[in-house]
Structure formats: C-alpha cells, structure tokens
Write a structure and sequence with these properties.
The complex is a heterodimer. By secondary structure, chain A is of the alpha+beta class. Chain A is built from four helices and 16 strands. In chain A, the strands form three sheets. In chain A, strands 1, 2, 3, 4, 5, 10, 15 and 16 form an eight-stranded antiparallel β-sheet that branches. In chain A, strands 6, 9, 11, 12, 13 and 14 form a six-stranded antiparallel β-sheet that branches. A two-stranded parallel ribbon of chain A has the order 7-8. In chain A, α2 crosses α4 and α3 crosses α4. The longest helix of chain A is centred in the middle third of the chain and has 15 residues. Chain A is globular. Chain B folds into two domains: about 270 residues, no CATH class; about 60 residues, Dna Ligase, domain 1 (2-Layer Sandwich), CATH 3.30.1490. In chain B, α1 packs across α5 and α2 packs across α12. In chain B, about 45% of the residues are buried. The chains are: A alpha+beta, B alpha+beta.
C-alpha cells in the first residue's frame, strides 16, 4: 500500500477562437476496493457549469458545452490516493463480463498477432497465469518507441511493426487474451512519476479483475491509479470535443503522481 | 374475389400520379449515388379476414411483448443468458448489441415503441414471421396515404366493402409518443430530405402534430434537450421519434463525424431527461441470429406457446443444425445476420459450384454469421399489369405500437416484387406496394 499526491492537467490552445465547444471529459478517478481517493479537486477553465454522469462501464465523466469564443480550454484534477489496498477488483455484474471476451475492430488479430499467439500461447494453470506468461513473451519481442504509432493504430498494425506505446502494448494484450478466451479490458490511469497518462489491461478470473501492465511487464500492485476502463481505448478517451473554429490546436498534458511518505 | 371489374383498378394511374405529386418517393443509394424513385402503388388490396386478423393481432402482441422484455433483460440482468436459453455469443458478438446501453432504463421501460414485423403467408394459409424490425422501421405512411387517395377516387368501393379504417395510425402514434414523453415537445428527428424515407418523416409529423426537425434544430443545454422555435427561443423536448440510426444519433458518443445527430443527446437520454423512440440498442433483438430464439423468448418470459410461427430456421452455430444445412444446402435460403434490406440473402440452389464451395467454407469458419431457412411456398397475390391480374410474391409489414400495452394497427404495408421470379420483396430492391385491408366483419 502506498499514498500518492496526483495531478492531471490537460490544456488545449487554439490558434484562433473556438466557439460552441461540446466536451466530454473522462479523467476523474474513483474509489474502489483497490484505491481510495481523498481531497479531489477539479477545475475547468474558462470557468463554466458542467454535468456529471456515469457511463455504462461505471466510469465517471463530465460533459457540457461552452459557447463563447475562447482560445484555451483546460481541465485539472488533483487529489490524493491510497493505492494497492487489494490485488484485484470484484465484478458486481458478472453477466456483463462476456462483452470483454469479444474482439473490437482495433483488437481484431491479423497475421502478426495470429502467428505470435500460435508460437507463444500456453494454456497455463489459470487465466491469470496464462495472461502473465503472454505478457512476458510480448515484452521480450515488442519495443517501446514513442511516435511509432498513431492513436488510431490497431493492435495488429502495432504488432506487425514490432513497436509502439502503452496503448499498443495494451491492445495487443487484449487481442491475445481474448483470443485465448480470457475476458480482458482496457484501462486508462496514471503511473508513479511524471509524464503522460498511462494504459494497461485487466483480465478476468473467478469474479475478479487483475491488472497487468504489459508496457512495464508487471502485475499491477500499488504504483498505478486507475481512471477508467472499457473494451478498448475508444471507451476510455479522456478528452472528446466538438467545436467551431479553433484553427490549429495544441494539446499539452501534465501528469504527476508523487509518493507521499508517511 | 374477382379483380377484373374492381373499380379501384381503373384509378391506379391517377392515384400514382397523386402519390408522385405528394412526393411519395423512395430513395435508393446505388453505387454511391442517390436515386429517388416513385414507390409504385397497385390498387388490388391485400385482404385479411376479420377472424384471421384477430389471430394475427394476438400473435403480434405476444411477440412484441416478449421482444420488449428481452431487450430490457439484456441491458440489465441477462436472465435469459444465465438460464441458458440464448448463448452469450449471440448477444455480445451481435452488431446490434450496444454496451453503451447497459443499465439504462428508458422512460416507462418501453424499448420498442414502434415495431415493424414482417410476415409472409404460405400456400397453406399459415402466416410466418420473416423478421422483426425494432430499430427504425418505416413504411406506415404509404398505406395511410394510399387509403386516403383510394377513398377519394372511389368512395363507392368503401361503401361496398366493410373494412377497418386505417386512418387512425397518426392518433395511435401520437399516443405512443405522449406516453413516454418526459416533459416538453415531441419531435420527429429526420436526417433530412435526402433520406430514403423523408416523405414518411414529413407526413407523420404533419399527421401527428409533432415538430419535424433535423439535428441542427436541437441542442443540449445542461442535462436537457431543447428545440429552437421560430422566434429563436428554446423550448424543452421530452420525446424524440428519431429516424436516424443509433450510430449517427450523437457525435459525442457514437460516430464522431455525424453531422445529422445532436451532441450529448445520448448523455441526456442516459439521465432519463428525454425519451428516444425507438430506444438505442434495440438491434440486439432484431438480429437475424436472435430471430431463431424469439419463440423461446415467448415461452421464457410469458410462459405461453407462440401463436405465430417463425419460418423454419436453422442455426449453423449448433452442430446438429450445421449438419442439416450442409446436407440440404440447395433447398435452403441463407442469410447473413449482419445485413438488412434484402442484402446478404442467398438461395442455396442459385449458386454455381465454386460459389457454393466458397460459401460453405465461410459458413464453417463463421457459423454464427449465418442462419438458414426453408424456402416458404408463398401464397402469391395478384397485381395488375397491363390490364391483367398476375400473381406475385408479397409480404406484409405489420405495425405494432407499444405504450402501456402493444396495439396492432389494423392495416399494414404490403410489398410485392415486380419481377415474377424474385422472392425478395424489400422496397430497397425495387417492387411496389399495396394497401392492406382488414375486413371488419
């Protein structure tokens, strides 16, 4: 168990004024049996009223529309979190787990994933061990390289070129686990340190979800803070917007997760 | 009945001219270009006897009731899956299943407000269900306006025959819309005039008194939906009869470049602040694969025997059925569960040897993707062609509207194929329509 202070900040700068800006922001971590949040603060700039809601996966989000001209748009969420309280999450709606066994367009395997799977898949003593084994083997052949893939890249595209970022590691793992019949879901969250938001996966076994971080080749313990989960990255998009004008837009993200020593 | 001297037939041309003038058209996309064509009307009606209709009515109500319970169950507890009536794969892998709808309870718990159930009558006079349309079924406006024009052309016909009036559809629809309206106006949301059913959208708006709007006229503010009136003032909208498919409803939640939807409409719906007719996610119940399970649903949810039969259907997903399908391939019609509008339908005996081999390979690889059905020996009905009555294949789309209870419209859309050899009567594939008469005694 650890305690962290965290900050998530996303800022959009527009080269010309934007108006009529509809937004959906999914960057609010929630307490569960694995993590406990304290002193959460959220700030939107320009200051505006917004709606709070919960999606069908159980992720919190806010939405709204900002009409006046604005050349910047910023959201900041900060607080404290206790992590690693439990090694797993309990599924409250086991009847819905089956949806995570089905490939989505971006996890559908092609030749590269198919070949890797055939060469490396071992049935294992249980789904968790089997997934961990696949993760180790993937880690050995796949290279982390920023800028080598795009947001829309599929698991197969990344696998074929052998490199990618955390999103790609996660999509490939989802593809492999689902191929092995193991329900698996995409997770967005934060990792100890400074940088960008992080992605990993959770796999299902006997009513529980276990986190695996294929980018770092480790089982999720107490240095991860979860924000949301879904079938793939699309269900977890942190920022979605629709606006008029805006010209060229620049997005900058600040993520800090710093341990509070007790 | 002898249609030779049937007075309405003499008015066929003038009625079709009027239909053209009223803009009763059907749009078809072919090779990426939009063609608008008239939907030819044939004056010989389909006639359903009073007692025959009573049976149909009972069966349709039963079916729609069960389908509504199924959708409600699927997006919550999934008891029917837990109890092993429907395999999980048929839900989660269905293109109509929308995880985004999990846990959402629409206004008054109604999912399929307007259901279009397609039937055919066999030579044995038995009615068979062909498919359920629970998303955005269209077609009610055609028999509505045709009846009106027929009455004008030949009032005498309607004195001679005693039939149920079908001009109450708008009233029934309005009641259905009002029943779930959360608070505020009722609107019909159309993609616009290039949609294949635009005539229907505008006609139903006129007949029900609902506002005809496009996505541009609606907006979300806070957690409610509004409509901008002619003075530019905002007015709350409580029910949207949307004629836009789920994917295009809301660019913030579904297809992001949809310009015909309303940003955040789905978020407002999730909060229970607006009713959407029909509910998003209904596609999980009118999937051709799920069709096979509807009789089982009726037994499961209602503890009743199905009154109306499915066409005999096989699921290659089950090994036993797969064996049967491969053995009787030439006698069966195969349907791709993901396709609609008469596309993806293959008659086993129409394939060449190579095509057949290719198809069977596909069938073995993706058995869940297909269903196979016995070819029903249709009871042909007559149409007038060059002054002669000639038999053609025809189906019937019955409309079932659900508010507190399902109600069956005492009419329906009868579509026929123009080509004497064609079994496909979908209006997207050519053909025309007829009025459907339900005799009152």
């Amino acid at each position: 168990m650890k305690k962290f202070k965290f900050l998530y900040q996303m800022k959009l700068d527009f080269s010309i004024d934007a108006t009529n800006h509809s937004y959906t922001l999914k960057c609010i971590p929630q307490s569960d049996i694995r993590q406990q949040l304290h002193h959460i603060e959220m700030e939107l700039l320009p200051s505006m009223s917004y709606q709070e809601a919960m999606d069908s996966f159980g992720n919190a989000y806010i939405f709204g529309r900002y009409i006046p001209p604005h050349n910047e748009f910023k959201i900041q969420v900060s607080g404290e979190v206790d992590t690693g309280l439990q090694p797993y999450l309990i599924e409250e709606k086991p009847q819905n787990v089956g949806m995570f066994r089905i490939q989505t367009p971006c996890t559908t395997p092609g030749t590269a994933i198919q070949t890797f799977f055939e060469e490396n898949y071992v049935r294992g003593s249980n789904p968790l061990n089997c997934a961990i084994d696949l993760m180790h083997k993937l880690y050995n052949v796949f290279t982390y390289e920023t800028g080598s893939t795009r947001v829309e890249s599929t698991a197969e595209e990344a696998m074929a070129q052998g490199k990618g970022v955390c999103q790609d590691y996660s999509h490939i793992m989802l593809s492999l686990c689902r191929k092995a019949g193991i329900p698996a879901r995409y997770v967005v969250g934060m990792l100890e340190g400074e940088g960008a938001s992080h992605a990993w996966i959770e796999i299902y076994q006997d009513g529980k979800w276990y986190g695996l971080d294929p980018t770092n080749n480790l089982v999720v313990d107490d240095i991860h803070m979860k924000i949301s989960h879904g079938r793939d990255y699309k269900d977890c998009a942190i920022n979605k917007g629709l606006l008029c004008g805006g010209g060229y837009q620049k997005q900058s993200v600040i993520v800090v997760m710093e341990e509070l020593l007790q | 009945m002898n249609f030779k001297d049937f007075e309405l037939c003499a008015h066929t041309n003038s009625i079709n001219e009027l239909l053209a003038r009223y803009g009763v058209k059907f749009g078809i996309y072919k090779n990426n270009t939009f063609h608008e064509r008239l939907f030819p009307f044939d004056a010989i009606p389909r006639i359903i006897e009073a007692d025959e209709f009573i049976q149909l009515e009972k069966g349709l109500k039963q079916r729609v009731k069960a389908l509504n319970l199924f959708i409600k169950d699927i997006y919550s507890d999934k008891k029917i899956v837990k109890d092993n009536i429907v395999p999980e794969d048929f839900i989660f892998a269905s293109s109509g299943y929308m995880p985004e709808c999990e846990g959402i309870m629409p206004s008054k718990g109604v999912y399929s407000h307007i259901s279009g159930i397609d039937l055919v009558q066999g030579k044995n006079k038995e009615w068979y269900i062909l498919e359920d349309n629970l998303r955005v079924p269209s077609g009610a406006s055609y028999p509505m306006i045709a009846r009106q024009l027929c009455r004008k052309s030949s009032p005498k016909t309607f004195e001679t025959y005693h039939l149920e009036d079908n001009r109450d559809y708008a009233k029934m629809l309005r009641k259905t819309l009002d029943y779930v309206n959360v608070e505020g106006h009722t609107v019909i949301l159309t993609p616009g005039r290039y949609n294949s059913a635009y005539f229907e959208h505008s006609y139903l708006a006129e007949q029900t008194g609902a506002h005809l709007v496009t996505g541009q006229d609606l907006f979300v503010e806070g957690d409610k939906l509004y409509y901008k009136n002619y003075n530019g003032e905002k007015e709350r909208v409580g029910a949207v009869y949307r004629r836009i498919s789920d994917d295009y409803l809301d660019p913030m939640n579904f297809v992001a470049d949809s310009v015909i939807g309303v940003p955040h409409l789905f978020d407002v719906y999730r909060k229970g602040n607006v009713a959407l007719l029909n509910a998003p996610g209904n596609g999980v119940a009118d999937d051709k694969g799920i069709y096979y399970f509807v009789p089982k649903m009726i037994r499961y949810y209602l503890e009743e025997e199905p009154i109306l039969q499915n066409a005999p259907t096989y699921l290659p997903f089950y090994e036993e059925d797969r064996k049967y399908v491969l053995e009787h391939f030439d006698d069966l019609v195969l349907k791709d569960v993901a396709e609609a509008g008469g596309y993806g339908v293959v008659f086993g005996n129409s394939l060449t040897k190579e095509e057949k081999e290719k198809f069977i390979k596909m069938l073995k690889e993706e058995p869940r993707r297909f269903i196979a059905q016995e070819v029903i020996d249709f009871l042909d009905i007559d149409i007038m062609e060059k002054g002669e009555a000639v038999p053609r294949k025809a189906d019937l789309r019955a409309f079932v509207l659900t508010s507190d209870e399902p109600v069956v419209w005492k009419s329906g859309l009868t579509r026929f194929s123009r080509n004497p050899d064609s079994f496909i009567v979908n209006s997207s594939q050519g053909g025309g329509f007829k009025d459907t008469w339900v005799l009152s005694q």
